[in-house]
Specification:
single chain; 291 residues; alpha/beta; UDP-N-acetylmuramoyl-L-alanine:D-glutamate ligase; 10-stranded mixed beta sheet; 12 helices; globular; binds ligand NAX; binds adenosine-5'-diphosphate; lyase; CARKD; NAD(P)HX epimerase activity; NAD
């Protein structure tokens, strides 16, 4: 019987002698022509969520654009296809580079280019780090879900209902929305290397033992790039040594809290993903242990 979790871990205050190596190195593999924003939002959210160091791997011709937009995030240009999406030629480079990191986030804005999907499937089977997989990373996984059984460490999947439908193939988005917990449970089944974050109103976080139903957040968060921020947050929390379920749960809760602060500031209609990003500090400030 699966246990419902209602309590949320607090974030411990930092020890005075901490250094950036204590808070995790996050590698973000994201972006393609037309979707540099997703890559920037995800990596900035990881830094704002406490990661000690964040590096964004991006198709090489887009490197100048993201380097101009990002100041605190480092950038790593990678081989690209003629469509300016990540090329499979970069697989070994990404694998070698990933050894320097604690966590790898894959997916925001990667596109559904066939070669890029092939790259993602290979990375999922070969990266020896915990992975957060979102957006087009999930669309790639939908091409071959058996890849989930070949994951080396752990993967946190963060599908919205349509991505979940693509993964499962047998349900429509509407069916998924009508029996979210039941379908999540079926998907997790006995997979012990997978944590699922089924997004939307009342996001469900689930592994093979327990689940959490989130109550923070609001419809203002139904805006482009909102999910890309969540991916970066969860990756950062994983890098700060929260176990996968707790990192996902905390990320979802604080993402919603930041969205609720953004609603107070700008309302639901005008809210953009950058408003959520701007409110991450407030969400984290109010969630430190012993506060
Ligand atoms: N600035 C940027 O560069 C942005 C890039 N993005 C990237 O764009 C790519 C495509 O992602 P999209 O998610 O836009 O496209 P998808 O085609 O995957 O899904 C969008 C559709 O999913 C359905 N959906 C989502 N949440 C739902 C819910 N709670 N209930 C019912 N239906 C729901 C809706 O029909 C919605 O139109 C991804 O790689 C993503 O990371 C987007 O995140 C937007 C911002
Ligand atoms: N009505 C809502 N209530 C609470 N949270 C929401 C609502 N609509 C969207 N969200 C949250 O906003 C985020 C949207 O993510 P996603 O659909 O991946 O968008 P994008 O692809 O544009 O980044 C998810 O975390 C989702 O849970």
């Amino acid at each position: 019987m699966m246990q419902q979790i209602n309590s949320i871990l607090k974030i411990p205050p930092r020890k005075p002698d901490s250094h950036k190596g204590d808070f995790g190195r996050v590698l973000v593999i994201a972006g393609s022509y037309g979707m540099t924003g997703a890559a920037c939002l995800c990596s900035e959210a990881a830094l704002r969520s406490g990661a000690g160091l964040v590096t964004l791997g991006i198709p090489e011709s887009l490197h100048g654009i993201v380097a101009t937009k990002l100041t605190c995030v480092m950038t790593h240009p990678l081989p690209e296809t003629h469509l300016k999406t990540l090329s499979d030629m970069g697989r070994q480079d990404i694998l070698d580079f990933s050894q320097r990191f604690d966590v790898v986030a894959i997916g925001p804005g990667l596109s559904q280019c066939v070669e890029t999907k092939r790259l993602v499937l290979w990375l999922l089977q070969n990266i020896e780090r915990p992975i957060v997989l979102d957006a087009d990373g999930i669309n790639a996984l939908a091409e071959d879900t058996a890849t989930l059984d070949k994951i080396k460490q752990h993967v946190i999947l963060t599908p919205h209902p349509q991505e979940m439908a693509r993964l499962l193939k047998v349900y429509t988005t509407k069916e998924i929305q009508s029996k979210r917990k039941e379908i999540a449970e079926k998907f997790i089944n006995s997979r012990d290397k997978v944590t699922l974050v089924l997004k939307g109103n009342n996001t469900i976080v689930m592994n093979n033992e327990k689940y959490y139903v989130n109550t923070t957040g609001n419809p203002g968060m139904a805006t482009a790039g909102s999910g890309d921020i969540l991916t970066g947050m969860i990756a950062a929390l994983l890098g700060q040594n929260f176990p996968p379920f707790e990192a996902a749960q905390l990320g979802v809760y604080l993402h919603g809290t930041a969205g609720d602060y953004a609603k107070q500031a700008v309302g639901e209609i005008s809210m953009t993903a950058t408003d959520i990003l701007d409110n991450l500090p407030k969400a984290f400030l109010n969630h430190i242990q012993n506060k």
